[in-house]
Design brief:
Molybdenum Cofactor Biosythetic Enzyme, Chain A; 7-stranded mixed sheet; MoeA_C_domain_IV (chains A, B); 4 domains; 7 helices; 6-stranded mixed sheet; 403 residues; molybdenum (chains A, B); Molybdopterin biosynthesis moea protein, domain 2; Molybdopterin biosynthesis moeA protein, domain 3; alpha/beta; 19% helix; homodimer; molybdenum cofactor biosynthesis (chains A, B)
């Protein structure tokens, strides 16, 4: 069995193995597909925002000088020489001493330098004349071209996770697509002769493959994409075929479950140990057996076959790297009082599953067994018991991490 | 213009208009497509978890009574009569006084009631005999069928948002698909003769349609799906065609932008007001013009044409209902000190865009203008200034909502 590797050391090693994934290739994606992606570079707006000088209110475009003295008591009458909607076209310049009816967003004609909102005006019944009842300074209710952003300025910085407001600003800048980081491509391979696809009828000794479903979902939840999935019986050559298929499909990371402990049919161990991979034991419960290696140039992380072990191992060792690459925050971690006393094995970090109770304590759910997949589903946090702790009382503070 | 409706009253009205969307139809989806969906009913496991009694460790399956006196000093020798892997098949019953080598997960044979881990044993060189060096009580290192969950018990409750651990538990229960709530189907229709698709060359007076992109992304971020999108010039008949197409495509909610203010080309107003819709003004800035109605039985929410107004209106009035239906939490809201003094219009709730500064204050970004789409993209929170407040000093506490 050899020495057990410390959890933090294993985590560091996995992180270093995955570090190369952080240098992402880039791709151009249409705005409608870019939600949640990460900008690969600063995004320059080719046009000013707004693109042209336009009206901020429905009203009348005027020369401010022509209405300088206007008030409710002493309104200024101007002939209305036209009407401007928010629509394609270039308006004629405004002739001094006249007004043009204008809609919000319509281009303000050359010569005009203010918009008088409609509520400060009174139109003649035939619309030919407007009485301006309030003076407006030059620039009032006029949005200057570039007043939001100058042409050539960055509308978005590099490295942000794209939310709707970012896509809106890119669209307003006249961009149809954005340069984003490619998502990490992951392969998920379950091993075990006892496994069948969930939903298939179970013969004696068979169980549904929960690890494949769990890892596919966990990879996606961590912002990566799944490029290859397989389920293989305990047969080294079948496993080799699937790992080759994963590499050929462009996987940048291979995750396996099962086949790495001390038993007689440890198919992952048999295949990758001769290639120089490490297959050993980490000082944690559940999830002791772990493996790390490189298969045809692709990092491979091997998890144990127990579904709880695999899920917690992914959460502890792989999710942090993938989430960081995808611009996702780490899960909330918090110190909470234990709802009840617990015991733990000395020398191993125990990861208990639990629930946050209404009164803010952490209550263990379902015991330490690595097969308690329903209990894990009923949990909403993990309770971390340090290696040197063998018992804790109700009320003792423990580190918890949200699931 | 008429009276301005209070923001909270409008929010309540929109919420009531969308309340019927909360009664979701259901659909069956494969586990691999169920991440983030909401369970429509409790999910029963048709099998016990684990499905059969199996070994928790690699070791030897024995009768506990046969090894009752075993210790390091006085080990008990048993003939090894077979080997059991985690693989299909039903093991022969264990004969009293013998042991079977067993791998983790393999079925424990009838007659055996304990597993002695391999580290507490010593095998003869030919494997024919094992010396048991530690007694084990009945049940030790044996996972009983149903010890995680009984057959017929609920493995998942109704109404939860499916995370990887839930899908893993459903898979372990032998389920291939889950009954989930359908996502809300939304149509997004931008109006305005000045609008062109983002990326198209702009003629004078034209601007890219940012609202379509913004609303499509915002609908998805709120957990709903987009069923129809359109961009129409200011032409009532064209708008009617697109709203009909939206209804025919199965949209349950129609969102429009533009065409609802006081100008001369208010196409949404012209179409829906005669149908009994409300088109009016809400006491907020930006986003004063708003519309609500029902088009061929489908709720329609009309937003103003300014992209900032549309985005904030969606966030304030529509996102809360859609997020609640999708099981998403509301955005974080917090009271923060203002980084600088601000002024506000009396009688209107002002929604300023801002950033959380490193020292935990809320700093306004870009001013109140509803055209400042780049400034909104550079913001990470909204600052809510109440209707009755006309000025605030630096350091005054304000309500903020995370973007």
């Amino acid at each position: 069995m050899g020495e057990r590797v410390a959890v933090d050391e294993h985590a560091r090693f996995v992180r270093s193995l995955l570090a190369s994934l952080g240098a992402r290739p880039t791709e151009r994606v249409p705005l409608d597909d870019a939600l949640g992606r990460i900008t690969a570079s600063p995004v320059e707006s080719p046009i000013p925002l707004p693109p042209f000088r336009n009206a901020q209110m429905d009203g009348f475009a005027v020369r401010a000088a022509d209405v300088a003295g206007a008030s409710a008591e002493s309104s200024v009458a101007l002939p209305v020489v036209g009407e401007l909607a928010a629509a394609p076209g270039t308006p004629e310049p405004l002739i001094a001493g006249t007004a043009v009816r204008i809609m919000t967003g319509a281009p303000v004609p050359d010569g005009a330098d203010a918009v008088v909102p409609v509520e400060d005006t009174e139109s003649a019944r035939d619309g030919a004349t407007v009485r301006i009842r309030r003076s407006r300074a030059a620039g009032e209710y006029v949005r200057e071209a570039g007043s939001d952003l100058a042409a050539g300025a960055d509308v978005l910085p590099a490295g942000i996770r794209l939310e709707p407001r970012h896509l809106a600003a890119a669209a307003a800048s006249g961009l149809a697509e954005l340069l984003v980081r490619e998502r990490v491509r992951v392969a998920v391979v379950s091993t075990g002769s006892e496994l069948v696809a969930p939903g298939e009828r179970l013969a004696p000794g068979e169980i549904p493959d929960a690890n494949g479903v769990a890892l596919v979902a966990a990879v996606r939840a961590a912002g990566a994409v799944v490029r290859h999935t397989a389920r293989v019986r305990d047969d080294v050559e079948r496993l080799r075929v699937e790992l080759d298929a994963a590499v050929d499909a462009g996987a940048e990371l291979i995750l396996t479950s099962g086949g790495i402990s001390q038993g007689a049919y440890e198919v992952v161990r048999e295949l990758i140990e001769p290639l120089g991979a490490w297959v050993g034991s980490v000082a944690m419960q559940p999830g002791g057996p772990q493996a790390t290696g490189v298969y045809r140039g692709v990092p491979l992380i091997g998890f144990p076959g127990n579904p709880v072990s695999t899920q917690l191992s992914f959460a502890l060792f792989v999710a942090p790297s993938l989430r960081a690459i995808a611009g996702l925050p780490p899960p909330r971690s918090e110190r909470l009082p234990l709802a009840e006393a617990i015991t733990s094995i000395p020398g191993r970090r125990q990861i208990l599953r639990g629930r946050r109770t209404p009164d803010g304590t952490a209550a263990p759910v379902g015991g330490p067994g690595s097969h308690l997949v329903a209990a894990l589903a009923a949990s909403d946090l993990l309770i971390v018991v340090p290696e040197y702790v063998t018992s804790l009382d109700a009320g003792d503070l423990v580190d918890t991490v949200d699931l």
